[in-house]
Amino acid sequence: MSNSTDAGTDAFGSLPTRPGKIIAIHLSYASRADQRGRRPDAPSYFLKPSSSLAASGDEIERPAGTELLAFEGEIALVIGTAAKRVARSDAWDHVAWVTASNDFGLYDLRANDKGSNVRSKGGDGFTPIGPALIDARAVDPGALRVRTWVDGELAQDDTTAGLLFPLAQIVADLSQHFTLEPGDVILTGTPAGSSVVEPGSVVEVEVDAPDLGVTSGRLRTTVTQGAASFDAALGSLPAVDDTQRAEAWGSRKAAGLPTVEASATGDPASAGRSAADAPVPAGSPVLSAQLRAKLEGVPVAALSAQLRKRGLNNVTIDGVTPMHPGTRIVGTAKTLRFVPAREDLFASHGGGYNAQKRAFDEVAEGEILVIEARGETGSGTLGDILALRAKTRGAAGIITDGGVRDYDAVAAIGIPVYSAGAHPAVLGRKHVPWDVDVTIGCGGTTIQPGDILVGDSDGVLVIPPAVAEEVADAALEQEEQDAWIAEQVAAGHPVDGLFPPDAEWKARYDAWRSR
């Protein structure tokens, strides 16, 4: 059976006319969202130029000086009739055709695009489409499949049943913001499996309706090595870091990067995954609601004493004080690393959607964002806008061993902040935002993503997840004993032999407790 038509190949792939606009969605498949470690509450979009269109059989050039060209097999929708503020129930009636597409992206240019993807996904040939158009009337939008092969090996295989946002919802949502016109193209997102390809690789994408035998045919693209490089005098140059490598390849492991160890839960599925791949949100096994309640009920000083008994002495974040007196925080660490300011590195890593902005955009509910500023207090490390973003995301707090700009405004936002004090200067005076979700040093101690942090007026402690439950229980027991001792002192007993209790006083305490 075939309800598809090959519209031929020209400058616009298989499309009959040049589209007025190409709209692409950031995250739409559950498999991809889970791979990235974040699930959006609603779809978000970016635009691609029609000059990026290519046909099946065309080549895509990886520019000189770049390394992270990644494929994304996707289902493309072609609008047939204008849609403006259409209902979800009517949205599919405005789609004329369905076909295959490949939303190529150059991650070397991604950070400075600030999420717009103008340069990273707008290059010539970066949107192959086709080869055949499937009649949208002939298929069920909830039963389409997209598959991608790299050099003959299956890399992606998912169906529209795995979408976070059904195709009709995407069309209806876009139509409430602007009119979708005939010929417009919507790229509906990619499932898990997207990764980096090298010159010489052949990428093929196919969209079909398996139950009906309807197919777009295989959209074939060959990767070549370009000779032209970018001119630094005209704009920012390509730049990559480990975060971009992990995102482009699909995971830190796939990119050949060091990974964090499995968590204290003993879950083998978490072994070999980075903190970005496996975040530790509020309510996770590492920091359950029960453990959180215990840690919220015991002073940091008591926890410190228990850690010391277990040989853990270098677990305090020194030199930071709470912005609000009486502040108490409990959460898991999300880490952000700054390196010393260097003009050329700030030019490549400091602008655009840099590591600092990504960290504040990605911090999860119940996490505490911890910033390595090397104790350098000669500039701010965050300001009111970023503090507001962290609060909106549900972060449990922010800790930096550097300065805070807009100090009064940050204080008014109300999110708990521990810092080395106020400073009016911008980040670039002393720091370059470098990496997210890596092991860092803050206030003289080491913090890993997922470590448990507890802070009060005495300071902030880092508690390894493996001992957190044991330490919390012991500290609560010690607090009970200390409260009893305080009652004895208030009654007039001397502290000698009572604090700490000798055998006689310990027996009295045990007897009291048993009653």
Automatic annotation (TrEMBL):
Q: Does the keyword Magnesium apply?
A: yes
Domain of life per record:
Bacteria
Q: Which Pfam families match?
A: FAA_hydrolase, RraA-like
GO molecular function per UniProt:
catalytic activity; metal ion binding
Identify the keywords attached in UniProt to this record, alphabetized.
Magnesium, Metal-binding
Q: Where is this region: Disordered?
A: 250-281
Q: Where does Mg(2+) bind?
A: 406
Matching InterPro entries, A to Z? Answer: Fumarylacetoacetase-like_C, Fumarylacetoacetase_C_sf, RraA/RraA-like, RraA/RraA-like_sf
Query: Any keyword Cell membrane?
Result: no
Check the record and name the CDD domains matching this protein: RraA_family
Q: Which residues form the Fumarylacetoacetase-like C-terminal domain?
A: 22-223
Return the protein name: 2-keto-4-pentenoate hydratase/2-oxohepta-3-ene-1,7-dioic acid hydratase (Catechol pathway)
Name its species: Microbacterium pygmaeum
Instruction: State the taxonomy lineage.
Output: Bacteria, Bacillati, Actinomycetota, Actinomycetes, Micrococcales
